[in-house]
Design a protein that fits this description.
alpha+beta, 7-stranded mixed β-sheet, 12 helices, 24% strand
């Protein structure tokens, strides 16, 4: 059994058509600027009429047929075409979301700034549906094995970075295909095929099973080893809950009495008689809550709006502090848009946050950019200490990367996870799906942190059971002493 911190903390795996929408966008100054290099206009009924037809998202292997206000989604390899789903609206957007979408159409090139998205979506018009879309995709063990291998061969961007010889993996596992006579054996075969790829955004999922080949590290590893080393508590969930309760107690014991506030994944307080602010960001998702404070299913735009409101409250309460500690050591990600919305609270001028491009075996897309806009209420420019660790992943790294370039920010802790690409979800012919990394993110200086992660300025442990049991927090105590 896998004991994962991500079963306790907020993590979003983006699925289906939402992979398209990336993370964030709005024309409002409190949101993230999208596609600053492309003039965009609101999408209306007249514009929708111009978009009837076939559109390919190159580098992603996605094809969309928009007709009669419905979109059919196909996923492509060079040899196959699998029809996935048909949904109302444009690329799965509701009528309300379409009303918030901006677009630019230049010849056969379409750019869409979707609500709640940090990066523009770019599509190329096709005259017809590829002929292979009329063919069935094999669903037997050999067909599934070949389909998964081919999908990764075409779209996974980091075989060299991860030191994986993908053709050799095909040859190694091929003799087992004849033994995969049921779903259990097939899942095992495909898991073993993917096993050399140490990437937290590589996944395989069926109705009953989930697998990622990522090597356990950080809090996950600490919790697994700690649970196995004790015999007082039999239920791993109860044991992990107790650890996190104690971890929370250790942190809050450093804060001023009666200064603690919470809003969804945000917790904030002050220390040192109000002079130091502390902001713990558990995740970059699950900000839309019900009356009991439990997360609700919500669109990316709704999540972004709720997160922005929560951050407004926190920053208003902490505005008079002389310095701020931001803690994302256990933040496993969520939406890029929320990450960049939070980061721009600390900039005084408009600046490039990140760019990204899709890189497949034979193609590299034109980079799309996300920009930070200074908040209308004024930026926080006092010293900031950012606590990061091995569990700072995905959208949390999208926050940490532009932050670590700011002059008032010091990073302490441990190197981040180094998994930045959105998860490109690929449905399989039998209804399972795989997820993979196909995007290269670069910071404003052109540096990629995929695989490497973001290194702290000051190294200090961030999550050790021995420290939690002793009531100490080396990372937070170091930050408070700076």
């Amino acid at each position: 059994m896998k004991y994962s911190v991500h079963t306790i903390l907020s993590v979003t795996v983006v699925t289906g058509l939402m992979v398209l929408s990336g993370c964030s966008s709005s024309s409002d100054n409190d949101d993230v600027a999208v596609a600053g290099d492309i003039p965009m206009t609101p999408l209306d009924d007249e514009a929708l009429g111009q978009l009837e037809g076939f559109w390919e998202q190159r580098g992603y292997g996605n094809l969309y047929e928009y007709a009669g206000n419905r979109t059919t989604w196909y996923t492509l390899t060079e040899n196959t075409c699998l029809e996935v789903a048909t949904d109302p609206g444009l690329v799965g957007l509701s009528s309300d979301e379409i009303a918030q979408t901006r677009y630019h159409l230049g010849g056969d090139n379409l750019s869409l700034a979707l609500p709640g998205s940090a990066f523009a979506l770019r599509l190329d018009r096709l005259e017809t549906l590829p002929a292979r879309c009329e063919d069935m995709v094999a669903r037997d063990a050999q067909g599934m094995f070949d389909y998964v291998w081919q999908t990764f061969d075409e779209y996974y961007a980091f075989f060299s970075l991860r030191n994986v010889d993908w053709p050799a993996e095909y040859a190694s596992q091929l003799p087992r295909v004849g033994e995969a006579t049921d779903d259990e054996e097939l899942f095992s075969l495909l898991s073993d095929l993917l096993s050399p790829i140490d990437d937290g955004h590589v996944v395989l999922a069926s109705d009953d099973e989930f697998y990622s080949p990522a090597v356990e590290r950080g809090a996950d590893l600490e919790l697994q080893q700690g649970f196995e080393a004790q015999n007082e508590v039999a239920d791993p969930d109860v044991w992990v809950d107790n650890v996190f309760d104690r971890f929370r107690e250790v942190i809050l014991s450093r804060m001023d009495a009666d200064s603690i506030s919470e809003q969804g994944p945000l917790t904030w307080a002050t220390a040192d008689d109000g002079s130091i602010g502390y902001l713990f960001i558990l995740g970059m998702s699950e900000y839309v809550l019900d009356a009991e404070g439990e997360p609700l299913d919500a669109s990316a735009a709704e999540e972004l709006a709720a997160a922005s409101t929560a951050m407004d409250l926190a920053m208003a309460d902490l505005a008079d502090t002389t310095r701020l500690i931001i803690d994302v050591r256990l933040n496993g990600g969520g939406l890029d848009a929320i990450a960049l919305n939070f980061a721009q609270r600390f900039v005084s001028d408009r600046q490039l946050a990140l760019s990204k491009s899709a890189r497949s075996r034979d193609f590299q897309s034109v980079p799309v950019e996300a920009w930070l806009e200074p908040p209308t209420t004024g930026a926080y420019l006092n010293p900031v200490t950012l606590i990061v660790g091995a569990d700072t992943a995905s959208a949390a790294e999208i926050f940490a990367i532009p932050m670590h370039r700011l002059p008032q920010v010091t990073l302490i802790g441990e190197r981040t996870a180094g998994i930045l690409s959105d998860i490109l979800e690929k449905p399989l012919p039998n209804g399972w799906f795989v997820g993979l990394s196909n995007e290269v993110y670069l910071d404003a200086q052109g540096v990629s942190f995929e695989g490497a992660g973001v290194s702290p300025d000051i190294e200090v442990p961030v999550f050790r059971l021995v420290d939690i049991e002793a009531g100490v927090d080396p990372a937070l105590d170091r930050a408070l002493a700076m």
